[in-house]
């Protein structure tokens, strides 16, 4: 929170995307107790429990609410299932009629279990651990809605954007409205910072980013401010590379999440002078361990502490060795310890 507010932090802040997840035995045990991934997301006690598991293991500075970006479209009326080992399956929306059936107004109100998870977490978390709420960005959530799930190239959605399909505009507008209400409720329940995940932002060419990536995120933040929510927002427009400064300026995010292939030199020289950067260790480097991990961490420690939130460039993979995560934490914390003496 100090870095997001433009202050010098007491130490370099660190947290990890997917820090609660399948690489932890205790996560898999709790998910089994819940029944399924979605049952886990909608069970406030167990969702809070898995959020806290990595906090007990590692000395991280933030917890991210355990939920999923696809809960919101589910409450907007899109049928959702998670197939074991296959990822999400949704009822596709690909025409005006289906788009106009998406419910925006009451969707956020139907996510009460998520706000209960946030309230439990704010009670249980140590004071120095910040709580991050989140939603998916309209473009990324739209790709799941249009494709009907994950898809290697997301061609239907990208062509819908290239062709300026009016039904895609309706989907995006409904998502903007519902997402703003959803994030506002998370903040009211106790989330201190909010992150907007635009995993597929890199799918669009110059000229279309403004309409489908920047504006929807900007409108969500404007709506939050109009509702009196002042929590800082972290924008993760994955894969847009040198368009990050444009994203930062057009949306008024407080920080940008950087993908793993963003050069650290570019983050230090071009991005950090303008905006707080979060990221961007390659999740594969954590699996590899050894020299690769050490060098990757050291490279990121060259970023100014008051402008950087240590994280991965994308989430932990399930095959990540827990000892490597601990090793990474030790390497990061060694910086602050060496400066204390
Ligand atoms: O980061 C965290 O620890 C917070 C919780 C969180 C999850 N998903 C839990 C989850 C967050 C912030 C997300 C965001 C999310 N969900 C994104 C954007 C970030 C990204 O990863 O790019 C996306 C695209 C989704 C949609 C989604 N959820 C997919 C495509 C999948 C299947 C792929 C997979 O990893 O299995 C999920 C499932 C999911 N969401 C899991 C977790 C821990 C794995 C579920 C399980 O098997 O237990």
Structure write-up:
The chain has 341 residues and is an alpha/beta fold. The protein has a single domain (25-340), classed as TIM Barrel (Alpha-Beta Barrel). 48% of the residues lie in helices and 13% in strands. It is built from 15 helices and nine strands. It has helices spanning 25-34, 37-41, 44-57, 71-75, 96-100, 112-124, 138-147, 155-162, 166-189, 209-226, 244-251, 264-271, 283-288, 290-300, 322-340, and strands at 62-64, 80-83, 87-90, 130-136, 193-198, 233-237, 255-257, 276-281, 308-312. Strands 1-4-5-6-7-8-9 form a seven-stranded parallel sheet. Strands 2-3 form a two-stranded antiparallel ribbon. The radius of gyration is 19 Å and the shape is globular. The two termini are 25 Å apart. The model has no long low-confidence stretch (mean pLDDT 97). Coproporphyrinogen III is lined by residues 17-22, 31, 37, 64, 66, 68-70, 87-88, 134, 150, 197, 199, 315.
């Amino acid at each position: 929170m100090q870095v997001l507010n433009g202050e010098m932090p007491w130490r370099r802040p660190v947290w990890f995307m997917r820090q609660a997840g399948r690489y932890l035995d205790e996560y898999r045990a709790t998910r089994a107790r819940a029944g399924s991934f979605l049952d886990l997301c909608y069970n406030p006690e167990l969702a809070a429990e898995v959020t806290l598991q990595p906090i007990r293991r590692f000395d991280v500075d933030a917890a991210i609410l355990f939920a999923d970006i696809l809960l919101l479209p589910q409450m907007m009326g899109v049928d959702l299932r998670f197939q074991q080992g296959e990822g999400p399956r949704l009822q596709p929306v690909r025409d005006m009629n289906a788009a106009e059936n998406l419910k925006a107004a009451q969707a956020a109100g139907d996510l009460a279990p998520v706000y209960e998870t946030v309230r439990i977490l704010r009670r249980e978390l140590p004071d120095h651990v910040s709580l991050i709420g989140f939603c998916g960005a309209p473009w990324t959530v739209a790709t799941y809605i249009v494709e009907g799930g994950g898809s290697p190239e997301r061609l239907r959605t990208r062509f819908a954007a290239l062709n300026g399909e009016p039904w895609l505009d309706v989907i995006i507008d409904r998502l903007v409205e519902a997402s703003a209400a959803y994030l506002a409720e998370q903040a009211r329940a106790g989330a201190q910072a909010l992150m907007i995940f635009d995993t597929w932002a890199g799918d669009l060419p110059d000229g279309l980013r403004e309409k489908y990536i920047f504006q929807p995120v900007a409108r969500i933040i404007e709506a939050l401010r109009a509702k009196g929510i002042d929590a800082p927002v972290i924008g993760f427009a994955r894969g847009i590379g040198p368009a990050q400064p444009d994203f930062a300026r057009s949306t008024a995010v407080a920080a940008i999440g950087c993908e793993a292939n963003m050069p650290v030199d570019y983050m230090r020289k071009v991005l950090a002078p303008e905006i707080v950067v979060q990221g961007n260790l390659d999740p594969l480097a954590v699996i590899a361990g050894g020299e690769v991990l050490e060098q990757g961490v050291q490279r990121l420690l060259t970023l100014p502490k008051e402008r950087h939130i240590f994280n991965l460039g994308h989430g932990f993979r399930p095959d990540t060795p827990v000892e490597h995560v601990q090793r990474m934490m030790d390497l990061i914390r060694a910086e602050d310890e060496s400066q204390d003496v």
